[in-house]
Design goal:
Layout lengths: L1 E5 L12 E5 L6 E4 L1 E7 L2 E7 L2 H15 L11 E4 L1
Antiparallel strand pairs: 1-2, 2-3, 4-5, 4-6
Length: about 80
């Protein structure tokens, strides 16, 4: 189980900078860094953060498919970076 939290930085253009997760999977709480992935589909800009790049890519692709026509969601156009 994990939950997200964010360290807010004023005037930061990237909304995901500072995003951390509280990881409870080992039974001992620890704060872990996240990976943020972004996808532009038509006029929409979608993003997701997760503990791993694989999880973040899957989440942003799922959000894109929920919000748009599936054919506009191209996995090769996803861009990821550490938060």
């Amino acid at each position: 189980m994990s939950c997200g939290l964010k360290v807010v930085k004023a005037n930061e253009s990237n909304q995901d900078v500072g995003t951390k997760m509280l990881d409870l999977s080992s039974g001992k709480p620890k704060i872990v860094s996240t990976i943020g992935c972004h996808l532009k589909s038509g006029s929409r800009s979608l993003s997701a953060s997760a503990k791993t790049e694989k999880e973040a890519r899957a989440e942003v692709l799922a959000r894109c498919r929920d919000a748009t026509v599936v054919s506009f969601c191209k996995e090769e156009e996803i861009r990821c970076s550490p938060n």
